[in-house]
Amino acid sequence: MTITLNDVWQALGVLLALAGLWWRLQRQITDNARALDAYRLEVAEKYASVAHLREVEARLVISIDRLTERIDRLLSRFDKISARRHA
Fold first, then answer.
1. Quick one: which H or E segment has residue 47?
2. pLDDT tens digits for 13-46?
3. Mean pLDDT value of segment 45-50
4. How many whole angstroms separate alpha carbon 16 and alpha carbon 61?
5. pLDDT of 53 higher than 80
């Protein structure tokens, strides 16, 4: 079997088509990787971590508990004043 110039051109055409396809897929993969990196950076900059949210929640619960205790003491005082007036 002899290889003709036409066979060489066909093989070269197929190789060029495959190279073009490979280049396009590689570019898409690179673009997607860059987009994912940008998204990860945005999330890291804009959104709080789970540990930070837990810390804030714990501080809020403590503050709410203190406020509840103060309100309870205040209501207890009002009850004592009201009891004295009615007695």
1. none
2. 999 999 999 999 999 999 999 999 999 999 988 9
3. 87
4. 66
5. yes
Give the rounded distance of the alpha carbon of 66 from its chain centre. Answer: 33
Which residues fall within 8 angstroms of residue 48, CB to CB, at 6 or more apart? 56
**Owner of token pair 């709080």:** 48
**This prediction's pTM:** 0.51
Q: Copy the structure tokens of residue 47.
A: 């959104």
Distance in angstroms (rounded) separating the CA atoms of residues 25 and 41: 24
Token duo for residue 24? 């396009």
Q: Among all chains, which residue has been given the structure tokens 């036409």? A: 6
